[in-house]
Design brief:
Shape: elongated
Strand content: over 45%
Number of strands: 6
Radius of gyration: 28 Å
Oligomer: single chain
Structural class: alpha+beta
Helix content: 10-25%
Length: 135
């Protein structure tokens, strides 16, 4: 004949309400996470990165003039090796150019960088993204 468990032993104890609540909350969170990831995968656009450049500030520095900029990526794809070129112009004549390559600009995000010029870019500079690669 098999022995019955002693009162208060682990085999005889029922699950506490906290265990049930923790399990239910975890199941709801996991289901919501799977739903959100599925929605993102189904609605993500498959187009190229959408890059735009905005000048944030321009100031003199020890090495010349520093122009800080933000590269915004409005698309659902990451851009790698983003080439940003800045130019100082006088009317239609290009006086000086500077170029930098950013490692990447994540999807729906931005990256900040800076260009250093020898000449004062005040009111005569333009900065634009000129190329990228797909990671």
């Amino acid at each position: 004949m098999a022995k019955s468990p002693k009162p208060g032993s682990v085999e005889n104890r029922r699950a506490h309400w906290i265990e049930w609540t923790t399990g239910a909350v975890s199941a709801i969170l996991i289901t919501a996470l799977i739903g959100w990831i599925s929605y993102q995968a189904a609605t993500q656009a498959d187009g190229p990165p959408d890059l735009s450049v905005t000048i944030v500030s321009s100031a003199g520095s020890a090495g010349g003039y520093l122009v800080m900029f933000d590269v915004n990526n409005a698309a659902d794809r990451t851009a790698a090796a983003v080439v940003v070129r800045g130019e100082i112009t006088d009317n239609d004549n290009v006086i000086e150019t500077a170029e930098i390559t950013l490692d990447y600009v994540p999807a729906r995000s931005k990256a900040r960088g800076g260009l250093i010029f020898r000449n004062d870019p005040a009111g005569r500079s333009r900065v634009s993204a000129t190329g990228f690669s797909e990671p």
